[in-house]
Amino acid sequence: MSKVISNDAEIQSCVSNHSLVEIWVSREFDAHCRLVEYNDQVVRTSDGFYYLRTNIKMRLTSFSI
Known about the structure:
By secondary structure, the chain is an alpha+beta fold. The chain has a single domain, classed as Roll (SH3 type barrels). Helix content is 15%, strand content 48%.
């Protein structure tokens, strides 16, 4: 099972390392993407999408593009 990303330090690590993550919204898979920035309310992906942090789960993935 992949690691759930749950705090600012883990998100910052993903941003710094250009890690590929899975975004899950309401238990439904939404995207494989890289995180480029974040704040207390949202994360932004390399595709330009914004997600409310309270509405998603993020997981590190072993899938690579």
